[in-house]
Write a structure and sequence with these properties.
about 190 residues, alpha/beta, 2 domains, five-stranded mixed beta sheet
């Protein structure tokens, strides 16, 4: 079965041109969607995946109809390939049923992998540069003294959580984590004794 997928980003935009091209290509069914391509989880795209079966061909007017991000587009096409579904993009003249189309798709995958690796390298280099400048990475460590004071205030039953947080400058989450950690340690000690 030849299934078309037509998408525009907003409700105001018109699908007519895409539908006309997909109909000329003799698509037996056309899944239509008016939703942004920046989000991968879309109802129309999900519907397309529910409809397609092994041996089917998905046709789009342009590869950009599948999404905005290169990695998202390639992931979708890879999912088609894993399902045994062919892919055709009319504008780019890409057809995974042909050797040229398969080669084009594989080149796109190589470029996407390079893009992923370059991003990972840049992040790693940025972290190393921050370390060299003496910047501490991750969550800032709480001063143990402040936490001890907060726990003593909590144990006294004289202060509300709000007062403890305001008085010590630690967050409510940090206080609760410290309380729970202490309870776990106490339970372990009790178990160890018995």
């Amino acid at each position: 079965m030849i299934i078309g997928y037509a998408r525009v980003s907003t409700v105001d935009q018109n699908l007519d041109r895409q539908i006309s091209m997909l109909s000329e290509y003799r698509c037996e069914k056309i899944v239509k969607e008016k939703f942004t391509g920046t989000i991968k989880d879309r109802s129309g795209l999900n519907q397309l995946f529910e409809v397609i079966r092994k041996g089917d061909t998905v046709v789009v007017e342009s590869i950009s109809r599948l999404g905005r991000k290169t990695l998202d587009i390639l992931t979708i096409i890879q999912q088609f390939e894993e399902m045994g579904v062919q892919f055709v993009s009319l504008k780019e003249n890409m057809d995974t049923r042909t050797s040229t189309g398969k080669a084009m798709f594989q080149m796109m995958c190589v470029i996407a992998e390079l893009e992923r690796n370059l991003i990972a390298e840049r992040v790693k280099e940025g972290l190393e540069a921050s370390k060299k400048r003496g910047k501490q990475l991750g969550r800032p460590k709480l001063e143990k003294d402040k936490l001890d004071i907060a726990l003593r205030m909590y144990d006294s039953n004289e202060y509300s959580i709000k007062e403890i947080v305001e008085g010590t400058g630690i967050s409510q989450g940090s206080l609760y984590r410290a309380i729970n950690k202490r309870k776990l340690e106490e339970m372990k000690e009790i178990k160890a004794r018995s």
